[in-house]
Amino acid sequence: MPYSPVNSLQPDWSFPAAVLPYSAEWVEQAEALAAQLQLPCLPVQTPDQLEASQQVLWVHPQGLAIQQGGRKAPGPVRVDFVEGALAHRRLYGGGAGQQIAKAIGVKGQRCPQVLDATAGLGRDAFVLAALGCQVQMLERHPVVLALLQDGLQRAQQDPEVAPITARMQLLQAHAYDYMHTQAQQGAPAPQVIYLDPMFPHTEKSAEVKKDMKAFRTLVGADRDADALLAVALAWQPCRVVVKRPRKAPCLAGQPPSLSLEGKSGRFDVYALRSLDSAELP
Ligand SMILES: C[S@@+](CC[C@H](N)C(=O)[O-])C[C@H]1O[C@@H](n2cnc3c(N)ncnc32)[C@H](O)[C@@H]1O
């Protein structure tokens, strides 16, 4: 397949205005992060003292977070593999009966090896790793990457969660370039490639949880999403699974082999060959 430079389609993303330390103890870490991300570092203050329009990266004892400024701002957005929604899902989430598990092909002892090419906050990757899958995650946004790295580091301190996150590897990469290069070099394809690009922001705003708006502002619409499907299929994994909002058109207008309806969306499965016949790379 000829290489098309989709990265000339610049991602529609944004960056927080600054890094904010929680207290004097966190200033050194905040300054290092600010230098790494080439952002200014603010003096210690609470986010409600900031302009409502200002989004900051908050270096906080409970973990790195994106936080909106102003007094009525929604809560921080951080990666938390140990507590909250993901802990609940790990303990009571329905295991291999979940639609994502069926779409990926988790069944009995079979736990496919997955490339999650659009890692985001790592929630889907964590669900799959909790089911036993090895998950390689790709993320291109440097701030999302920092949130993920921080979440993975904190998870290492938890004896129950650490064995799960040990199955998750994170790489900063543009998914198109990564998959294209790997395929060109003859690297064996992963059994499953999972894509969950950000859908353009057309849903009614009430449907998007307030705190997640901050994440959507950061990431923008993933305008190269259609190209990801083509390059993923060209690498010839056993299957490519695409997460879509319930009523969204198929990625690249390409009909899948089957669709599984989930609670918050659907999973389009592009099956190329049986998972059972696949040799593990
Ligand atoms: C909707 S979020 C994924 C959410 C994720 N499935 C989860 O469970 O948290 C999409 C993420 O994919 C990343 N992304 C989109 N296109 C990408 C690409 N071509 N290469 C690498 N990362 C990409 C975006 O930066 C964003 O963080």
Automatic annotation (TrEMBL):
Keywords in alphabetical order: Cytoplasm, Methyltransferase, rRNA processing, S-adenosyl-L-methionine, Transferase
Pfam family, one: SAM_MT
UniProt cross-references to Gene3D superfamilies, sorted A to Z: Vaccinia Virus protein VP39
Source organism (scientific name): Balneatrix alpica
EC number assigned by the record: 2.1.1.242
Primary localization: cytoplasm
UniProt subcellular location: Cytoplasm
GO MF term (any one): methyltransferase activity
Catalytic activity: guanosine(1516) in 16S rRNA + S-adenosyl-L-methionine = N(2)-methylguanosine(1516) in 16S rRNA + S-adenosyl-L-homocysteine + H(+)
Descriptive protein name: Ribosomal RNA small subunit methyltransferase J
